[in-house]
Structures are given as structure tokens and as C-alpha cells.
Structure prediction request, 710 residues.
Amino acid sequence: MTDQPDRARNWLDRIRKLPIDRPMRIMNVCGGHERTIAMAGLRSALPPQVQLIAGPGCPVCICPEEDIHDAIFLSLRAGVTVVAFGDMLRVPANLPKSQPRTLDQARAAGGHVRPIASPTDAIRIARDRPDQQIVFFAAGFETTTAPVAGMLAHELPPNLSILLSARLTWPAVAMLLDSDSPGFDGLIAPGHVAAVMGPEEWRFVSQRHGLASAIAGFSPDGLLSALHAVIMQLLEGRAALENRYERVVRPGGNPTARRLIDEMLDITEANWRGIGTIARSGFALKPHLVDRDARRKFEIESDSGRKRAGEMPVGCDCAKVVLGKIKPDQCRLYAKACTPREPVGPCMVSDEGACHIWWASGVRTQSSEPAAAA
Amino acid sequence: MNIVGEKTIRLAHGNGGRLMRELIDRVFARHFSELGPDKTLDASPFSLPTGVAITSVDAFTVQPLEFPGGDIGTLAVNGTVNDLAVSGARPHFLTLSAILEEGLEIAVLDRVVASLAAEARRTGVKIIAGDTKVVPRGHGGGIYFTTTGIGVRNTGVTLGLDRIQVGDAILVSGPIGDHGIAVMLARQEFDLHGNIRSDCAPVIDLAEAAAALGAHFMRDPTRGGLAGVVNEIASATGFGLRLDETCVPIRDEVRGVCEILGYDPYTLACEGRVVAIVAQTTAREVLAAWRDLAGGESAEIVGTVTNPPARVVLATSAGGERILPELEDEPLPRIC
Prediction:
């Protein structure tokens, strides 16, 4: 532990000594990576040609607006309690100001909402309250989804159902790479996602698109090591997937977690808030789990005619921030109308959101640099 | 324990009658003895050594009432005494107002008052006035204490924000964040356990040692933590402050809990630390003096005062830098 700062400085020195002669845009797709970069102040320490871009790394930020809307209305029904990870409680849906717009506000208005820290909390609450229908609003990427699949493999209390809003990470990166302007030259692949699903999922970045890539852990030295690998590939004109988190990321990922996901969940096309539909990017409960599906149980039908259904809040650039098209402080609302105390968009709510992370690392003003045309 | 014929506080313990007199006699007066006021008087006379008198008031509402390394009693003494100490004063007297909640176990009150009395003896202050009220169940957190401290500024000491100069050194007397994490773990809201004890202690000796060596300014980093103190200095003086993360003492356990729950250790409260701004030329001397004193063994020089703009820059251990902001909101634990 104690020599970690030394290792980080060592990697930093090695990167600084490289003959970097052109801009290198390197994207990360994990809130944990962005947090490490911001809190260790790595952007200020790297050569100016190396640009670190926060990409789609926050499941709370892209959780469909309709799902939040549905969770709010479920929590206000008599006899129903919605349980969700803490971050989800403050994400706003596009509802009139006269109505509760977040689960937190629904709770204040008499709705039944409880924050939980893990799926086992949801089971415990369902057992403790057999008189209530417990709906677990499960939003997250693969790392959160694997424990949900594990939970579904067990005998569950009959009053527990799932409002599943789970997403896969790689399809968003694939969508960016298939677009006309991906906006990055190299990728830092997410260590925890790769640990669960296997590093192989990320090979397409180098093999199909010819981009430099490396899987990184979450300490500053681990991240700098992966960054060094990506920069070296770019300098040498190579494209590969290097695993710089070997201690945790093994070939094939975690076989138990993958088996449970395969047995319990289907992969489907899915909606990403403010971004749209992405093929093969969502999880859905397998047909045999239909009794666990809160959407069926409570006959939720989304009203697509509702004002701004599915969209980001008015004026909010979260979708551009999530895709790495603009930096958080280039949003028109950043640090003005939108702060962690009074967040407008989900990126300022969630701990994994780039805006929240930048704010916590001390960025308190808007950028003077105009946003590039996206 | 059955000290006053009852196990719990009743509303009648605040009604001015026999029960209240018994509670005061058998809990407060018993532990205070020679420290306490003359019960036969409604108001207490006192006299101070010559000099500039200094006063400070603070209310204490900590939950839980008892935590590893202290309780609301030690906090009520040290919180106020330390405010006087970092202002360059020697504390002499305290007043104590206690608001008790109906249903409070008298055994808990007895323990907390005993440790309050012990801490007052340790710091050399007398309690010259007191008051007790009882509020109905559900209207208070068991015990609320308010203490007012009265002291006299030590001769020759001139501390002030106006004495801070570019180039001054920033010192911290010990590891930061211990109190914040100890209390958070004691609440048992999370399935986390640790051996972290609150740093709750008087800083009189530390403050007097630094003041005697000509310190320019001192503060105890309580609510808002180290980040709060340095940001306050930046905005009040207009100078910048630069902290070196590798020099800031933080225990591994505190760092670990912060990582799990998403807290920033720089914003966590300390209750027995001093932040001092001293001339660069005397920084080593103050550091050596502190390290010889109880509670100052792990003191460090953590940064310097720099030219404007007024902001705090943290040089990170990884070799980067970022702005260290002050605490914005109630620090919420990261849940997922």
C-alpha cells in the first residue's frame, strides 16, 4: 500500500518522457476510473497532448426516464414499497413541478421508498414486510446486474419483484465507434466489468476498430499503467487489448456470475436516456421469471405521449457528457443551475456521474473553452 | 444503576422540585464536587487574571452519545476549551446547559457527566454555572449540552488572519478524520467495523507551544475538517494555499472507510487537532515542539501559503494537482 504513490509517480515520469507528438484522446467508460483521474489530479499532471475523456460510465445517468417515472408511481401506490440503490433516489423524471419528480420527493409526499446497499437488503425487507409488495428498482451495469442474477437464482419471497433497468457497457462504446465521429483514439476498458464478463468482450475495440486499448484497475498507479500501455500502442502504431489489472481480471471473467446472468437474463435492445436505443445493450428477465417482473405484476404501461418522456431534463447536456462529446464543465448548466445540492441532470446526482465527480474534485466554474461541435 | 430512585429521566426531573434537586445533587454535583458552582446561589461570581477576557459558546448534539474515544461529555468540554485555546487564550471557566430527553437512562447521563467532569479536571477549568431542562420524549436526542467557555488571552500572543503571509507554512498536529469516522462507525448504519477512536482531546498545550513560537494563526478543524479551515483562510486572506497530499497524516483505517463510503477525509471533523499557520523560518521548531507533546506525535508540515488567487490546491500523491473544495453539503455515504 505505502509504495503506491511512488509507483504512480514512476508511471507518470515514464509517460512524461515519451515523445508524444500529437493529440491523443483516451476515453474511460467507468465512473470509478473518472473518480481516480479527477481526485488524483491526473489531467493536470499528464502532457497536454494526452486528453482524458469521461465516456459512458454511469448507469444511473442513462437509466431510462420512463423507468424512473414508473418507480415513482409505484412507490405512491398503496401497499407497494420501492427499494433502490441510494443514487437512484434523487434522479429526476420529467414530471410537472406539482408532482414528485424523484423517488426522494415521492417519499416526502407519502410514497414508500427505501434505499438499499445490496440485493440481500431487498430480500430482507420483503421477508420483514409480507404485507407489502416490494419492488426492487435495479439499475446498473454488469457489475450490479450479476448480484441481481444471483439473487434471482434463489428462492425469493413471493412479494418481491424486480423493475429491471440493467445495461451492458460495451455496446455503448461499439455504438460510438460505429458512428462518424467516435471522438477518441484509445480506450481504458473498465476493470470491474471485465472481471465479471471477461476481457474478451473488449477485443472488438482493437480488432474491429483498430484502436489502442487496455484494461485498468482503480488506483492511480493502476490507471497510469494502463494509460502508458495505450499511449505506447498509439506511438508504435499498434492496436491491442492489454490487461493491466491481471490480479483481478482473468480470461473468461467470473464463470459463476456469467452462468447466472445467462440463466436468468436475456440480452435485448434497450433505451439509454437522452441517447436512444442501442442494440443488445440491455438485460431483461427470462420468460420463466415473468412472476418476478414488476412491469407485468403491476401492469405498467408507458405513456409515450407524456411531455418529454424519455428525455433528459430541459437544458441538460448530460447525454453529451455521457458520450464524451463535451466535458462536464462545458454544459450550459454546470455550476450554475446544476449543482449537487440542486441537480438538474443525472450526471450531477450520481456518484458515478462525471459532473458530480468533477464538482467533488473542485471544479466549480464553467469552462472557458467552447464545446466542440458534436 | 439506581442513583436517584429512578432508572430513566422523567419530565418531573426538570420541574424545579424535589426530583430535579435530587438529580442535580446525585449526578451533576456528585461528579463536579470542587469543580462546580455554589448550589445555594442563583448566579456565580468569578474573577479572572488580568488581561483580555475571551469567550466562546458551542452546543453539542452528537449521536450516538458515547463513541470510541469519547462521549458527548468530553466533547462538550474540549469543543469549547479548544476554541479558546486556538485563539491564544488559557481557558478558566465553563458554564453548562443540559437539555435531557424524557426516557433517557440515568445511567447513561451519569457516565457522560462523570467523563465531562474528568475532562474538565484534566483541562483545568471550573464549571461556574449550570442549568438542566427536560423535554418530552421524541423532542431531543437524549442529551444536548451547551457550554460557554471563558478564558484570558496569554500575554504577548497576537494571532490573526491579518498576520498570515505568503510563504508561511501550514501545520497539522495529527492525523485527520478520526473523530468523524469513529462517530460514523459507532452509528452502525453500515456493516463496517474498525478500531478507530475519536481524537477528542484538549489542545491547550499544543496551541500554547505554537503561540509561544510566534504562530500567525490557529484553528481547530472541527466541522468541515481541514478542507474547511484552509478554504476559510483562503477566502478571508485572498491568498492561495497549497497542500501536499503525501504529507497530510491520515490513518490507513480512516482512508479505507472513506474509500468504501465515498467520504473525503479532508472534510471530516477532528476534535483534538490544531491547524497552525507559522512563518516558514519557525515551522521546524513548532513541529519539533508539537511532536514532544501528547497528541502531537504525528504532527506534520502539510503545505504553504502562496500568492493569490484565493484557492486551495492539493498536490496529489500521484503527482497531479486539483482544487480542494470545502464541504458543500452534508457528507452522504456512497450507498452503491
Remarks:
- The interface with chain B takes residues 1, 4-5, 8-9, 12, 38-46, 85-87, 115-117, 140, 144, 220-221, 224, 339-341, 351, 359-364 of chain A (CB under 8 Å).
- The longest helix of chain A spans residues 220-236.
